[in-house]
Structures are given as structure tokens and as C-alpha cells.
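Team,

Forwarding the record for the chain on the shared tracking sheet. I've put the sequence and predicted structure together so nobody has to dig through attachments.
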Amino acid sequence: MEHSKEEPTRFMPMLEDCSITRKILDRVGDKWSVLIIVNLGAEALRFKELQRRSGGISQRMLTQTLRHLERDGLVWRKATPTVPLTVEYGLTSIGESLLGPLTSLVDWVNKNNGKIAKARIDYDHQHDTQE
């Protein structure tokens, strides 16, 4: 593994209130929240389309995650009284401000997933032969 002891010390911001910070990071770092926010970053979506674009999420989990994101002020919900009821979701301004960092994170994952997969295989191989 590459690691330089001569790397400069990086500035890490102080966490003012770790309990609140942890709760927010738990929400925005959740895999479903990331997918939902990134998907809504392109355009407002109806529930079923959002579920389709967030492959693998159950209706129950999507509903729960959207409620949490709406409660945190990251997502808005608009219900139109039609038959059947039409519900659309989009990002609020604070949700849009999170889109940049999350998009960067997704880009990082896409650029490094091969290296990470190889590191996992190497690690597993090394540890399997030691036992």
C-alpha cells in the first residue's frame, strides 16, 4: 500500500457538536440518501421514477428515506390531488448545496472502485493464506 510519512498535515475542521454532526452525517452518508439526492439533482421526480432510478430500494425504504430527507430540509414534497394522487419530490436549496459534495464523492467512487476491489482481493488473499 502506498503511504508517505512526509505528507503534510491536513487541516481538519473542528466538530462543534459531535452528536449533531454524527446524526447529520448518518443521514446524508446513508447509501439510499446519497442515491436519492444525486437522482433528484438532475430533476424533480415522481415516487415510482425515483424508485426505478434508485435500483434495489424497496418502497418502504424509499418512503422512509424521503421522509427523513424532507424532515431535514433537504427534499421537498408536492402532492397534487389527482386520481391517483401524484406526488413529486425535488431538492430544496440546502439539498442542492449538498449535491456538489455528494457528486464529488460518487465521482471518487467511480474513479477508484477498481483499485478498491483489487485491494480487497489482495487483502483477502493475504489473510486467507495466513490462517
